[in-house]
Amino acid sequence: MRTTGTAQPLPTVLLTGFDPFGGERLNPSWLAVKALQGRRMGGHQVVAAQLPTVFGASLVELERLLRTHKPALVICVGQAGGRAAISLERIAINVNDARIADNAAAQPVDTPVVAGGPAAYFTTLPIKAMLLALQGEGIPAEVSQTAGTFVCNHVFYGLMHHLATCRGFKRVRGGFVHVPWLPEQGQPSMRIEELERGLRLLVATALATPQDIAQGAGAIS
Ligand code: PCA
């Protein structure tokens, strides 16, 4: 019996990280994502890609990647200096408001990511299940209520808008995760090995959890 010749390619998981920005020499988001390139996980193949830390151009590149790879799951990752835990972002907002210039020297203030778009989108990642998975492995993790208003939120909002409005993407799940600095960048920090382990766990948990679990993680005020 012939069993070769018509093998279906595996569905893909798209992971993105950013290039260094704000005068830094490295960005842990890209280093962690890059380590998973080509890996098979839960019947899927990981595609890792770097986005420029640039308003506009980052989304052009992300949309190209979405069309090329037609992923089943998308997790965009960025650096959040000053945070001590892996931050699972809950909400993307329709505003660009940059405190520093991006890598193309642009610094938009109070402009929409998508003119006429809704105020915000929720992640469609199972962030509570992901939170429990990380904490269960002893990896510092939290749910975050804001991805800021710089290029990370811009990409997060653009991703969710694309998934919500573009033909063929309605069932694709996606969201955004911020990671701390590496020890050589400052404190608080997380080692690259722990970041990579955390990211692997996040992908595996998202693939295994079609419906998020109910687990309180909210602040009281
Ligand atoms: N972090 C920035 C943009 C690129 C990155 O890694 C942010 O939090 O917006």
UniProtKB/TrEMBL annotation:
Gene Ontology CC: one annotated term: cytosol
Catalytic reaction equation(s): Release of an N-terminal pyroglutamyl group from a polypeptide, the second amino acid generally not being Pro
Enzyme kind, highest EC tier: hydrolase
Xref: PROSITE patterns: PYRASE_CYS (PS01334), PYRASE_GLU (PS01333)
Pfam family, one: Peptidase_C15
GO biological process, one term: proteolysis
InterPro entries in the cross-refs: Peptidase_C15, Peptidase_C15-like, Peptidase_C15-like_sf, PGP-I_bact-type, PGPEP1_Cys_AS, PGPEP1_Glu_AS
UniProt-listed Enzyme Commission number(s): 3.4.19.3
One term of GO molecular function: pyroglutamyl-peptidase activity
Location, primary (coarse class): cytoplasm
Catalytic residues of the enzyme: 89, 152, 178
Localization annotation: Cytoplasm
UniProt KW keywords: Cytoplasm, Hydrolase, Protease, Thiol protease
Assembly: Homotetramer.
Function: Removes 5-oxoproline from various penultimate amino acid residues except L-proline.
Family, similarity comment: Belongs to the peptidase C15 family.
Designated name of the protein: Pyrrolidone-carboxylate peptidase
Lineage of producing organism: Bacteria, Pseudomonadati, Pseudomonadota, Betaproteobacteria, Burkholderiales
Gene this chain is encoded by: pcp
